[in-house]
């Protein structure tokens, strides 16, 4: 159980960073990260990071 919290923090941080990268690419009209990548990250525990990236970036 002790390793579960760092895992969640890590996967949410990665998801948040991917959201930021995707939004930056969208503004530059470059190839974007596939949506299925975000769904996968959310399913493995990154849903909070995805939500924060969507709302705050």
What is the count of helical runs? 2
Q: What portion of residues is helical? A: over 70%
Overall mean pLDDT: 94
**Class per helix and strand makeup:** mainly alpha
Which regions have little confidence, pLDDT < 50, spanning 5+ residues? none
Radius of gyration: 12 Å
Task: Report the β-strand fraction as a percent range.
Answer: under 5%
Number of strands: 0
Order of helices and strands: HH
Anisotropy-based shape = elongated
Explain this structure to me?
The chain has 57 residues and is an all-alpha fold. The chain is built from two helices and no strands. It has helices at 4-27, 35-56. Helix 1 crosses helix 2 (35-56). It is elongated and about 40 Å long. The N and C termini lie far apart (31 Å). The model has no long low-confidence stretch (mean pLDDT 94).
């Amino acid at each position: 159980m002790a390793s579960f919290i760092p895992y969640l923090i890590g996967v949410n941080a990665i998801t948040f960073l991917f959201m930021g990268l995707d939004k930056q690419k969208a503004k530059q009209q470059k190839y974007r990260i596939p949506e299925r990548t975000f769904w996968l990250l959310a399913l493995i525990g990154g849903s909070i990071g995805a939500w924060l990236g969507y709302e705050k970036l």
